[in-house]
Amino acid sequence: MSTTRPGLFVTFEGIDGSGKTTQLRLLAQRLGELGHEVVVSCEPGGTAIGKQIRKILLDANNQELAPTAELLLYFAARAQNVEELILPSLDAGKIVLVDRFTDSTLAYQAAGRGLGEEVVLQLDRIACRGLKPDVTFLIDIDVETSLARARARNEQTVGEEAGQTRMDEQTIEFHRRVAAAYERLAARDAERFRRIDGRTSVEEVAAQVWAAFSPLLEHVR
Ligand code: TMP
Fold first, then answer.
1. Cβ(104) to ligand 1 under 6 A?
2. Which atom of ligand 1 is nearest to the CA of 57?
3. Residue 30 and residue 11: Cα distance in Å, rounded?
4. Atom of ligand 1 at shortest distance to CA of 43?
5. 20 to 30 Å CA-CA from 4: which of 10, 47, 95, 216?
6. How far is the C-alpha of 91 from the C-alpha of 30, rounded, in Å?
7. Eight-state DSSP code of residue 188
8. Tell me: the pLDDT tens digits for 5-15?
């Protein structure tokens, strides 16, 4: 784990419907209650510019979006987030919790779309300038549960992202490739990844996240 710079950079990853966003919010709330300075962000969409890029990426009408254009848009949103929010917050010694980061692109674009890792890692070097998460929580659930949850959420959502998004319309094989890629990433970088069983209740998952997170607080200056 990096201890050379102040702050703590934590990312949450998982397939759609894994519950990572709920868990990130619960962790942020708990840390806030303990008096820590916490910054929460998400990708794509953690900045005003990122939100505009997110609209293009998730609009179900944009079926003709080419895989390479999609890849570059995810990294455009990330570059803005790194520059505008993540690096300044880390420099100020804050705990930064981000919902998805480059591991998502490795899982969805490199593996899911079949674009390969090399191009993703090259863009990561440009957009993130060497910034890597200190810790990554991978919330594990099976693909069937994930898709059922994502569908239920779409039915409840109102507003801009109501209904199916462009990413929800992918085949089950696409989501299986994404899930398999997350497995490989976590196995390859076992020091950074914390795997959390996401199939239990929200409270139980939150307890697992806290048990894995709390020892890291000693690294926050
Ligand atoms: P979210 O629902 O977790 O906010 O993510 C939005 C969608 O974007 C989700 O289907 C995953 C996808 N995604 C990618 O395909 N590549 C990426 O790099 C990121 C950050 C998200």
1. yes
2. 8
3. 16
4. 20
5. 47
6. 22
7. H
8. 889 999 999 99
| Cα distance between residue 74 and residue 94, in whole Å | 24
What letter would DSSP give residue 26? H
Polymer length of the chain: 221
**Side chain identity, residue 105:** T
pTM, two decimal places: 0.95
Which residue lies with its CA nearest to atom 20 of ligand 1? 43
For tokens 């998460």, the residue is 133
| Beta partners for residue 138, in sequence order | 13, 195
Q: In the structure, what pLDDT confidence band is assigned to residue 151 with cuts at 50, 70 and 90?
A: confident
CB 137 within 8 A of CB 194: yes
Whole-number Å distance between alpha carbons of 200 and 171: 26
* Token couple for 201: 């209740």
Question: Please, are residues 79 and 110 in contact by the beta-carbon 8 Å criterion?
Answer: no
Q: How far apart are CA 106 and CA 185, in angstroms?
A: 8
